[in-house]
């Protein structure tokens, strides 16, 4: 009898009070939807509906030796996506690529103007991007009175899609307008970096719900540690002693900041366990992205071609997952309800796309060392700007930890530039001998 009543009771409740049960199920689903791990797994399920069929198709074409036996109107597309032009690895000799301008090329005034232009463009793009990122993920929209709670935007994946669709458009136009190296990489290989890239971006947005923006910036500055570990695992790289030393300094500085901020009672400085887990996910995914892209550059592609290929798959993954979840039209409805959010989302995407172009131009004109110095200064300014605009409290110990992190970053830049200059000065001597 007890077992019978246990089985029948839910059915009776459903028949007598269908609206009540529906409301309870709806509230249960809404509660689960607020859990970041649930959203992450749902996103991964959406990506798998694209990845698994794609994997099966690629395996089929390779197994049937389609490159030699295939024909028809679809043959060029399948060859480009699955096999690429591996016999012709897109050598840079096929295109006139201007060498990176050194300090002695052109007048010093012109070089100074270029440097100011690059620094201003990078600072404006990424500082605006950081401020908007924190505004969109931590503040509500539509509040008319101080008592009104307003409405928060919760879908980080839609913001990733917005960023990627504009970056895809910009890089595609760039490839059309300016001559690029012959493309040789199989298109599907971009999907690995694309998947890790959208997951790292999702973690970056999602983490702001659980940690402060200064904490996130410091964690991004310390990603050199997992990048080195991933480099040893993926690319079998070796590192100098000063790289290990600065990595330890960075970890010490970040630990000082995190331990000092968690003791604060100010809600904007609290770092939760979920926030730390999401940040670890961001660092791991981002480290894999950079190392996989390094391996892809063996095909001698340009940075803009890399940008186009990665963003192409990112748009495919995110829009597919958003449509399957029904979140795409919900986010569009949120944009129509709140014009301020629509402006912020579009401006966020513009800053992200322009920032990538400034990265390519700065590295081409002045090299990676100057670019790293500019971006390190940007991270320091971003922390100060966030504390000023959003009232984040930083203790004395936390401030000292921030200083240690940026000191270590500058030491890395200095040591790397000294090592490269030493190699350049030694090269003519070896040639004379």
TrEMBL record:
Record's subcellular location: Membrane
BP term (GO), one: odontogenesis
Gene Ontology MF term list: 3'-phosphoadenosine 5'-phosphosulfate transmembrane transporter activity
rRNA processing recorded as keyword: no
Membrane topology: Multi-pass membrane protein
Main localization of the protein described in the UniProt heading: membrane
Transmembrane segments: 38-58, 112-132, 158-178, 241-260, 266-285, 306-329, 341-361, 368-391, 397-415
InterPro entries, A to Z: EmrE-like, SCL35B1-4/HUT1
GO cellular component terms listed in the entry, alphabetical order: endoplasmic reticulum membrane; Golgi membrane
Source superkingdom: Eukaryota
Signal peptide extent: 1-23
Tagged with keyword Transmembrane helix: yes
Alphabetical UniProt keywords: Membrane, Signal, Transmembrane, Transmembrane helix, Transport
Record family assignment: Belongs to the nucleotide-sugar transporter family. SLC35B subfamily.
Name the record gives this protein: Adenosine 3'-phospho 5'-phosphosulfate transporter 1
Native organism: Seriola dumerili (Greater amberjack)
């Amino acid at each position: 009898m007890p077992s019978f009543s246990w089985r029948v009771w839910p059915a009776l409740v459903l028949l007598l009070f269908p609206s009540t049960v529906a409301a309870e199920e709806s509230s249960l689903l809404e509660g689960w939807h607020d859990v970041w791990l649930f959203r992450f797994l749902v996103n991964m399920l959406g990506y798998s509906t694209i990845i698994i069929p794609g994997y099966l198709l690629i395996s089929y074409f390779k197994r049937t030796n389609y490159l030699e036996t295939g024909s028809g109107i679809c043959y060029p597309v399948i060859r480009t996506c699955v096999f690429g032009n591996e016999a012709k690895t897109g050598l840079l000799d096929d295109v006139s690529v201007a060498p990176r301008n050194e300090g002695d090329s052109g007048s010093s005034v012109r070089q100074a103007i270029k440097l100011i232009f690059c620094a201003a463009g990078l600072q404006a793009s990424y500082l605006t991007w950081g401020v908007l990122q924190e505004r969109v993920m931590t503040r509500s929209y539509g509040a008319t009175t101080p008592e009104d709670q307003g409405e928060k935007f919760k879908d980080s994946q839609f913001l990733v899609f917005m960023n990627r669709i504009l970056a895809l458009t910009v890089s595609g136009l760039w490839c059309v307008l300016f001559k690029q190296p012959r493309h040789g990489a199989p298109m599907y290989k971009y999907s690995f970096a694309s998947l890790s890239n959208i997951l790292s971006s999702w973690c970056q947005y999602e983490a702001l719900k659980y940690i402060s923006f200064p904490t996130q910036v410091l964690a991004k500055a310390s990603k050199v540690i997992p990048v080195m570990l991933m480099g040893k695992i993926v690319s079998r790289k070796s590192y100098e002693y000063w790289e290990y030393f600065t990595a330890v300094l960075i970890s010490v500085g970040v630990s000082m900041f995190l331990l000092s901020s968690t003791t604060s009672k100010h809600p904007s400085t609290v770092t939760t366990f979920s926030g730390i887990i999401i940040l670890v996910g961001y660092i791991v995914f981002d480290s894999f992205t950079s190392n996989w892209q390094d391996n892809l550059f063996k095909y001698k592609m340009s940075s803009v071609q890399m940008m186009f290929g990665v963003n192409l798959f990112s748009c495919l993954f995110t829009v597919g997952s958003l449509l399957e979840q029904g979140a795409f039209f919900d986010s569009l409805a949120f944009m129509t309800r709140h014009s301020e959010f629509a402006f912020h989302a579009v401006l966020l995407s513009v800053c992200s796309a322009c920032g990538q172009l400034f990265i390519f131009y700065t590295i081409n004109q002045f090299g990676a060392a100057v670019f790293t110095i500019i971006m390190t200064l940007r991270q320091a300014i971003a922390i100060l700007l966030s504390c000023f605009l959003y009232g984040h409290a930083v203790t004395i110990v936390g401030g000292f930890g921030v200083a240690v992190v940026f000191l270590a970053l500058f030491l890395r830049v200095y040591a790397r530039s000294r090592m490269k200059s030493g190699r350049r000065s030694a090269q003519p001597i070896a040639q004379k001998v």
